Amino acid sequence: MEALQIILAGSLVAIACGLLGCFLILRKMAMVGDAISHAVLPGIVLAFLFTGSRDSVTMLIGAGAIGILTTFLIEFFHKKGRLQTDASIGVTFTWLFAVGVILISVFAGKVDLDQDCVLYGEIAYVPLDLWITDSGQIMGPRVLYITGTVLIILIAFISLGYKELFLTTFDPAYASAIGISTAVWHYLLMGAVSLTTVASFESVGAILVVALLIAPPATAYLLTENLKKMLLITSLLGVVISAVGYYLAAWFDGSIAGAMASVAGLLFMLAFLLSPTNGLIAKHRRKKAILKPSGV
Amino acid sequence: MIKHVDNPVLEVHDLTVSYDRKPVLWDIDLTLPAGKLIGIVGPNGAGKSTLIKSVMGLTPNSSGYVKLFDKDLKQVRDRISYVPQRESVDWDFPASALDVVLMGRYGKLGLFKRPRKADRDIALDSLQKVGMDAYAGRQISQLSGGQQQRVFLARALAQQADLYFMDEPFAGVDAATEKAIIEILREMSAKGNTVIVVHHDLQSVTQYFDWVILLNMRLVGSGPTSEVFTTELLQETYGGKLTLLSDVGDLIRRERFPNREQFDKAQKPK
Amino acid sequence: MDTFFEFFSFADPNIRYVVIGSLLLTASSAIVGSFTFLKKKALVGDAVAHSVLPGVCLSFILYGEKNPIILIFGAFATGWLSLILIDIISSHSKVKEDTAIGLILSVFFGIGIFMLTIIQKSGNAAQTGLDQILFGKAASLVGNDLIAFAVIAAILILSVWFFFKEFTLLAFDEDFASTIGLPVRAIELLLTTLTVLAVVIGIQAVGVVLMAAMLITPAAAARFWTEKISTMVWLAAIFGAFSGLTGAYISYIAPSMPTGPWIVVVISTIAFISFFMAPKRGILYRMNNQRKIRRQINDENILKALYQLGEEEKNFYEKRTIEEILTKRKFDPASLKTGLRRLKREGYLGNESGHWSFTKAGKHKGQRTVKLHRLWELYLTQYLRIAPDHVHDDADTIEHILTPELETRLEKLLDYPTVDPHQSEIPYQ
């Protein structure tokens, strides 16, 4: 039962991250996703301090706002400060993340977070952290409700805005020419990334959110050439990563989130080598076949 | 030789466009007639693509205005189509040829609505017009350069617009595709559509276009091909750039000067 | 305050070690980072930093204790491996470089965390403190460790000093570097090796998570103060060292605090100050510059209006009221008044009981503005084929920016014309 709950939580997080990650990597914004997932930390800590709890909607909104602020700052330093983009990203997120870690150390007594949790979460405690209603009824693990809600919001966002996300990602110039605002969809997407990161943070931590944002979509990207299938494969990979990661971690008695990231990497490596269309081996064979036509 | 027309499809008034404050187009004044196949010609860095991007509202104007069908761009967006340069998008993108052509219908569909059967039919029809109907389901990464350009053209056709802007549609395509594309463009203009093409091959200009715009940071000529495409004007377009002009442009960028005195605009005595 | 003096008197040899160590580590990573910054590869440093974690853990698992040399070897190996993998993935598949960087960074770090948690639960007592590698701890820089790290830091600084010219060229123009016969690949390899080494030793003070900041931020801050590479590298080193020193101090007064985040906050603050305050490139400087330009345009327009009034009445030194000036050109009343007062202070105008008149210098300046306006109008009609009724707006701007050098060129090019396209006279001195 506990195993199932943990795997379910992991799957929800992995699917949510993966769906957004598909758009991030196609927009060549993988590193912006990395930056946001670090930068929301001070937002989370401050929300903790002010509200004193971790399940409030304020926290999601507050930290989400900081995520969007991060993209604003990156663009501000780039455009107004004329700092190259990569440096602008690097300076902004390391600063915000450092501030977050310091806040945690300073308010160690008041904030129910520690440095390790920030890095690799505590998904193992999912079954212990129950949502109990005012009347005392036990509703099950709290994290499942949060990540489940976020996933539903995301799926609604992507299916309603699929057309616009698709076009602004593939050909932004054409999108603005026919009157679709690239800026609006950019910030909506960044907002969604912030929201997902915050919701996933306590389960898998900052850097493993990045692994789930990037690795499954990159794997699916090598397996298909259809965006809808890519989203679907990414979701399936998310479930596989969560389940295999859990048992791997149980086997070696290590961090579940760490194991999930390792499995995600392994799956990418398999796709990179073995994908029937884009794999290294298939490509190598094709090259050979061209060099040595059959019958010669 | 700058010829102006009555009831123009496109009117560009006193347009100055800058990148990082340096003007790349100076004071362009231009009117274009309807139903013509029009070529924009000039050397590299002359601002050809910038001109159409600016007309489409993709780069901010430093001064001046643009009217399309005597209206603002926003009011007539659905009558105008834009074909960006082929290299401007990532062709590894997971999409099929049909997916890309369907994008041509997005503007008419509006927010949140999905393409219907009628839209698919129009898209398939457009693919057929460019001779790509057999490739509808093919992934765009597997198309040749010429085929990719045809898909872009089909997307524009699916928009069913009246005015088309095309940025270098002949760049890096095979001879057969170039011929096929120009056939379609001729057909379009014969039907009364206006097609404006950024072009860099001087050899084919007289053969392809009814009207030519000669551009090099400023407008050198605009008019019927036979009148404008002359040795003298070509020499002015391609021979030596105006060093004084570009030095002033550099100065504006270095000193961070405004392109226009924005704060007391429209208040000066006439 | 006592601890402050105790620390900065450097009387305690332990404090001395920690200070020397932190300075060397942060300064050397800032120096090497300057070149990754200039090559626009800042985020690659981030990938290397995260990727050393599995190497450190692996060498601990294999060796069984924390030997600095062994750990450095392990870190160096996986750091390099990450770069090779990023290169292979982005060149042998359609996956783009930024995705490859993010992928390798997070997966390697995940593997590292997985190993680290296994080690922590293994019960090996020697592992205590291994997790300090995540956020850094300057205070642990003592004894043999310090010697090992100091040697590497010295190697880094010396290498950059020896290959300064080559690295500069590589960062600036790789193609040119190879055409003049530099072994570009070898130099690139050397620079990458130095970057990995800088990360490997820098993590002692800053930790793997925030190490990227030590490579990027000092260089980004330094870039705002200078256009010269050697100055930039020096400044980056000084900024880096300063933040390292602060980190060591904090580690001393609050041992439970992780050092890395404090170092990063200090260096980020320096960077933000630079972004805003630095002369020439700073945001505030440029905003102020815009204000000056607006003032200059305003004042020259006042002089131009007075000159035009004088032209009409053939009397340049007549006293004018504000209302008269406003007939020539609409000004914002407030900026007109401050402009007039400023022009008086600068000696261009005189004022008698509310009436304004030119001084000799004022007339001269107003005349120059009018002349430039008309010359530019003529240039636009003659060289840009612009209709005479469309040139005014453009000339209204350009008249303020033309330098005496451009003015002379313009006069020569147009062959000292006497009238503009509207048949107004072009006034010469």
From TrEMBL, chain A:
It comes from the Bacteria. GO terms for cellular component: ATP-binding cassette (ABC) transporter complex. It is a multi-pass membrane protein. It is found in: Cell membrane. It comes from Fulvivirga marina. Belongs to the ABC-3 integral membrane protein family. SUPFAM superfamilies: ABC transporter involved in vitamin B12 uptake, BtuC. Keywords: Cell membrane, Membrane, Transmembrane, Transmembrane helix, Transport. It holds the Pfam family ABC-3. GO terms for biological process: response to zinc ion; transmembrane transport. The chain crosses the membrane at residues 6-26, 33-51, 57-77, 89-109, 143-162, 174-198, 204-223, 230-250, 256-282. This is Metal ABC transporter permease. InterPro entries: ABC_BtuC-like (IPR037294), ABC_TroCD (IPR001626).
UniProtKB/TrEMBL annotation, chain B:
The keyword DNA-binding does not apply. Pfam families: ABC_tran (PF00005). The keyword Transport applies. GO terms for molecular function: ATP binding; ATP hydrolysis activity. InterPro entries: AAA+_ATPase (IPR003593), ABC_transporter-like_ATP-bd (IPR003439), ABC_transporter-like_CS (IPR017871), Metal_Ion_Import_ABC (IPR050153), P-loop_NTPase (IPR027417). Residues 10-242 form the ABC transporter domain. Keywords: ATP-binding, Nucleotide-binding, Transport. PANTHER family: IRON TRANSPORT SYSTEM ATP-BINDING PROTEIN HI_0361-RELATED, METAL TRANSPORT SYSTEM ATP-BINDING PROTEIN TM_0124-RELATED. Belongs to the ABC transporter superfamily. This is Metal ABC transporter ATP-binding protein.
TrEMBL record, chain C:
The keyword Transmembrane helix applies. Keywords: Cell membrane, Membrane, Transmembrane, Transmembrane helix, Transport. It is a multi-pass membrane protein. One of its GO terms (cellular component) is ATP-binding cassette (ABC) transporter complex. GO terms for biological process: cellular response to iron ion; response to zinc ion; transmembrane transport. It comes from the Bacteria. GO terms for molecular function: DNA-binding transcription factor activity; protein dimerization activity; transition metal ion binding. The chain crosses the membrane at residues 15-38, 69-89, 101-119, 146-164, 232-254, 260-278. Residues 359-427 form the Iron dependent repressor metal binding and dimerisation domain. Belongs to the ABC-3 integral membrane protein family. This is Metal ABC transporter permease.
